[in-house]
Amino acid sequence: MTHDGAGPEVATVRLEAAKNPAQSESRRRRIWRIVRNILIGVIAAVAAIWLVLFITKGRFLKGPFERTVTRLIDRPVRVGGDFQLYFAPFDIKFLAEGLTVANPDWTTRRHLFTARRIATRIAPLSLLFGRRRLRWLDLSDASLDLEWNDARTANSWTFASDGKGKPFELPIIDRAVLVSTALRYRDPQLDLIADLDFSSIRSRDARIGEAVRFTGVGRIRRTPFTLRGALLTPNATAARGRNRLLLNAVAAQNRITMSGTLPSLADIEGVPLAVTARGRNAAELLGILGVVIPRTRAYRLKSTLVKRGSEYRFGDLTGRFGDSDITGAFTVQNGGPRVHIDANLTTRLLDIVDVAPFIGYNPDLVASRGFAAAARAAGAPPARLLPDASLRAEGLRAFDADVRYRVSRLRSDSVPVTDVSVTVALDNGLLHLSPFSFTMARGTVASDVRIDWRRRPARIAYDFRMGATPMARLLAGFGVEEAGTSGTVRGRVQLEGDGDTLHDSLATSRGRIAFVIPQGQLTTRNVQLSELDLGTFVQKMFESRLKEPVRINCGLIAFTVKGGAAAADPILIDTSKNVVVGRGGFSFATEQIDLAFRADAKKFSLFSGQSPVGIGGYFAKPSLDVVSPQLLGRAGAGLGLAVLAMPPAALLAFVDVGDARAAACGPVLAGATAKGQRTRDGKPRDDLGTGTEDRSKDKLRKKFLGIF
């Protein structure tokens, strides 16, 4: 045993080596000669192969090439003419004439790729490491056909019979000359076919000296389009194959431009592209993709598009439609059974005219001639306001959507609306607008709308809930002065109907409409006009006390709706000076209004007409009927008394003894029906409607103006 721990055998070898240094050197030289001879043999073999390939140009490899590539990509590959494959001197030189690569059996074209001549030099190491790189490419009379199958589960450029292979990836090209090149793309799920023709292409040092220009035609969802574009060398030095894309397209009166820098000749994956679009109607633009929205006025949009797989994201969106602005982002996802839209959009100022399409009006007609003319153009008879235009239900099962939309302010002359917020969810034809909220005249309206397009006709449920809203501010746009009016109103509209238009759904609706007026104040002028108390009104007019406040104790304006016809159930307003009750109703089907109001005083008054005030006409043109048969009857009675007795006796016909029965405010504030209303002493009221009056026109006139 040695002191360094080595065994006896090692020690013996060391001893012999120390004694025979010449023998050890001879052994090392022998090993070196063996290694050298092996290296020389390998180099000689490679040189021989290189020489054979160079001399023969590798033409004898044509058959093995066809068989090998056919096996690798699971597609028949054929070379109809000359074939060359060799090292020149270090790059791989490849030439094939009449090259064809077959398509799968399910495609509409026989070949994925054909070329009269293809010649290229390939960097050898790029075949082993990283992305394939072509030193140069010369391609003549080439055609590439790219297709998806009907279910979009397989495509023609993924090289595997089961469609699960690795898709073809375009190599980096340093220099290129392409002559008479064509590309065809087909996607049955998008109903898209595009045919592009490329002009001659020449590039050098990964830069294309002349623009790669192309033109094309196609069809998407039965909409034809044309294309013009170019691939340009960027001004700044770029990585190999990086090119500038410019594209212009025209489809369905929409003009679309796209620009960006591509990492290679035809790679747009993950590349930000600047996109602009303009046209007469954004519904035509999105309709190309099968996305249905209401008609818009002329629009212009600008965005940044990034494609990742089947997802197309449009970010930094800005633009205008009509007189309204829009910003935000949205994503189109084509990977599922239906197109899916996800969006976050914001509008600072939304013009009321641009809202018109969402209920079936033509916005251009509304802007030029008003809502009534637009309603008639949409199919509504004269004097009708609700449109009969279809809300395009037929397309709402072709895509799904999740959209969040906010509006800071609605531009309107009549109703001040701000802070609109709506979340839209569409799932296979079931549309929810929930939550849907906005601020109106400093009051908040929270609502939910549900439209089931899976039914024919569609079933639409409306639920609008209005928080306490100042009446003066709410009605300011209709000429009501805010000074002296402090009352508020809150309410709920809950209806459900069947129809593919706004008119049809309301004309068949059922439900309840109720607006509650808690305690507040109104001006004396408003109250006296409502009860036609001529004596008190004139007295206060001469005393300059027209704006003396009158306290509202409570009020309820409610309707029960059945079959699209609404009947008062009840109309009851209790003030400090009188009790206002109403009968009648209106029809969503005919849009006819026939309401009658009467105010009974709580105090004695001379010269009081005390007869109903009628509101008739239609939604589009309501009318006020002040001189009712009851007022004429009182005038006749007064005239008779004057003839039989003396002229002062005529005044007796206009005396109001002030016997109005005050309302119990509990049921009023609770929004109870007419049957649940009580007087202040707890007795049932018998002066209210029942919510079931006959709404035919003749009976309305005879009944509602003669009910008091």
Number of separate helices: 14
What average pLDDT do the residues reach? Answer: 77
What proportion of the residues is helical, as a percent range? 10-25%
In terms of DSSP E residues, the strand content is 35-45%
Which geometry do the CA atoms define? elongated
Rg value:
42 Å
Largest sheet geometry? 32 strands, mixed
Q: Oligomerization state of this entry?
A: single chain
Uncertain runs: 205-209, 234-241, 527-545, 631-657, 694-708
Q: Strand pairing plus helix content: what structural class?
A: alpha+beta
Distance between the termini: 133 Å
Let me know the number of strands.
32
Structure notes:
With 708 residues, the protein is of the alpha+beta class. Among the domains are: 8-51; 58-268, no CATH class. The chain contains 14 helices and 32 strands. The protein has a 32-stranded mixed β-sheet that branches. The radius of gyration is 42 Å and the shape is elongated. 31% of the residues are buried. The model is unreliable at 205-209, 234-241, 527-545, 631-657 and 694-708 (pLDDT under 50).
